[in-house]
Specification:
heterodimer; A: 251 residues; alpha/beta; six-stranded mixed beta sheet; four-stranded antiparallel beta sheet; 10 helices; globular; disordered N terminus; B: 325 residues; mainly alpha; MetI-like fold; 2 domains; 13 helices; flat
Chain lengths: 251, 325
């Protein structure tokens, strides 16, 4: 049912996308359409190309074959307005990648102030609001290395949200965290999902996938092996590789 | 540096080591006969006329010297680390003074004249040296930023020009560069004065070294910083200015400070162009009255004092950035 309400409004589409690192083919003929407000979870064994795939969506990586459209703009190597596309796509990294020489508040103000040309007062207002949303407004004046991993990742999410993106990409956002900090980041992501954000998450957190995903995509060896609703994916996996993967990860 | 928590016995406190050391030191002083130095004179009540004291005198002098030396080491070894460092510094400094004293100098020479020679050295020579070094380091820094960016870019022209430049100017002796610029440019029709050509040579040479320092500093910033900035839609110049360079400064400052200190001393090479900086003044004033060593030593002391001041400033700056990071 949810899939129907969100169909017909594609924000990202991939047609026959392939990518090589030297001789190694990282992505093989990927076809995928992601609609506005849809929540996608991408999972699969390491080296399956899932990170490469979402890094192609804001062109941190270049694909060599096929077409990727974001908000109707095609991503290609000679495009002049790649920054315009990137402003509309937030990205959260495994290692947070906060700017260590800037305070939490400055991290969050940087994008709106420097790129969107929003004046400092408004950028600050927005940053404070977003830090409230991720529940760490009291850390605003600290530097990133004074925060725990979970807090840093929540700042990273706030930093992306300050750009008011249409889509949020998450590249294994909880993989570098100590176990007790995973849930605070996942809670933030669930709230974000509930607010209607379009989200594409590479993660192995299957509880999160079950809770918020509209669709789970399973990748292996650079291919999309299977995609389905969480119910179908967990209870009725189609391919043997999916079954093996789920057996390993859901012990 | 890492200091181990296990304390080993000091070698100086082991009798066998102490004995071996004493014999070695005794042998050293005996070999390089110190009888006809000030030490021999000092011991003349025991050995008589140093020049006629022969084997006995030589043995007594070296024996006394060896005992003083080893006893000194032993006493220092009981002091705390900071005291040890201070005492050894002072002792080495006095040894250096003794070395200079042995030249039989006419030290009053540098204070006579109107204005006095030392004042001339400071007001004219030191000023010119600092002026040339400061202007050169500023230009070299600008060159280094541009050079580092060019070396990191994908632009073939920029990379080729930058790498040719660093290769050439790191590959030629600075003295040769000074001559080439001063004598070469007029051949092309550019008349250039001594000071500008000295500054040009120093800037270009040190700009080449500093290009490599800046390049390494920029490269040491994790790739994730670029990716996060790119993902936010920042453009290249903005990323460099606001994200990468501020983070590389703490990495760049220490080696840049070293370069500045090195340049200050290498600025003495421009004396070959007749610029009135420290080195040139020292040679010019001293040679007039055949008091070369007095003036050279004066210049040496001024250079040394200057670099000590710079080292202190450098340490301050480093500490400031360490606190921030």
């Amino acid at each position: 049912m949810t899939m129907n309400t969100k169909s017909g409004n594609p924000v990202i589409s991939l047609k026959g996308v392939s990518k090589w690192y030297g001789d190694f083919q990282a992505l093989k003929d990927i076809n995928l359409t992601i609609n506005l407000k849809e929540k996608i979870v991408i999972c699969g064994p390491s080296g399956s190309g899932k990170s490469t795939l979402i890094r192609c969506l804001n062109r941190l990586e270049a694909h060599q074959e096929g077409e990727i459209h974001v908000s109707g703009i095609e991503l290609h190597e000679t495009m002049k307005d790649v920054d315009i596309v990137r402003r509309d796509i937030g990205m959260v990294f495994q290692n947070f990648n906060l700017f260590p020489h800037l305070t939490v508040l400055e991290n969050c103000m940087a994008g709106p102030n420097w790129v969107r040309g929003i004046d400092k007062d408004e950028a600050k207002e927005r940053a404070v609001a977003m830090l409230k949303q991720v529940k760490i407004p009291e850390q605003a004046d600290k530097y990133p290395d004074q925060l725990s991993g979970g807090q840093q990742q929540r700042v990273a999410i706030a930093r992306s949200l300050c750009m008011q993106p249409k889509v949020m990409l998450f590249d294994e956002p909880t993989s570098a965290l100590d176990p007790e900090m995973v849930s605070e980041v996942l809670d933030t992501m669930v709230e974000l999902a509930n607010s209607g954000m379009t989200m594409i998450c590479v993660t192995h957190e299957m509880g999160f996938a079950r809770q918020v995903a509209d669709r789970i995509i399973f990748m292996a060896d650079g291919e999309i092996v299977e995609q389905n609703t969480p119910d179908e994916f967990f209870n009725n996996p189609q391919s043997d590789r999916t079954k093996t993967f789920l057996d390993q990860i859901l012990i | 540096m890492f200091v181990d928590t296990v304390i080993e016995d000091k070698s100086l406190h082991k009798p066998a080591f102490l004995l071996g050391l004493s014999i070695a030191v005794l042998a050293f002083f005996f070999t390089f006969n110190f009888t006809d130095t000030i030490f021999g004179e000092f011991l003349s009540p025991v050995i008589g006329n140093p020049e006629e004291s022969g084997f006995f005198g030589r043995l007594v002098v070296s024996f006394v010297l060896a005992i003083i030396f080893v006893l000194n080491l032993l006493l220092i070894s009981f002091a705390k680390l900071k005291i040890q460092i201070l005492i050894v510094w002072i002792e080495l400094f006095f040894l250096f003074l003794a070395f200079a004293y042995s030249f039989d100098l006419e030290l009053a020479y540098i204070f006579i004249g109107e204005p006095s020679k030392i004042w001339l050295m400071i007001s004219k020579g030191l000023f010119t040296t600092i002026y040339i070094s400061a202007v050169s380091i500023a230009i070299a820094t600008a060159i280094a930023i541009v050079g580092a960016i060019a070396k990191l870019s994908n632009n073939g022209f920029a990379y080729a020009i930058a790498s040719f430049y660093t290769s050439l100017f790191r590959g030629l002796p600075l003295l040769l560069q000074i001559y080439l610029i001063y004598m070469g440019l007029p051949q092309l029709g550019f008349m250039i004065d001594a000071i500008p050509s000295g500054i040009a040579a120093l800037s270009l040479c040190y700009g080449a070294y500093m290009t490599e320092i800046f390049r390494a500093g920029i490269q040491s910033i994790p790739k994730g910083q670029w990716e996060a900035s790119r993902a936010l839609g920042f453009k290249f110049g903005l990323i460099l200015r606001k994200i990468i360079l501020p983070q590389s400064i703490p990495i760049i400052v220490p080696p840049t400070g070293n370069q500045f200190i090195a340049m200050l001393k290498d600025s003495s090479l421009v004396s070959v162009l007749g610029i009135w900086e420290l080195m040139f003044m020292a040679k010019k004033i001293g040679s007039k009255d055949f008091n070369n060593l007095e003036m050279l030593l004066t210049a040496a002391m001024i250079y040394w004092a200057l670099t000590i001041i710079l080292e202190i400033i450098q340490a301050r700056i480093e500490r400031k950035y360490q606190q921030k990071a």
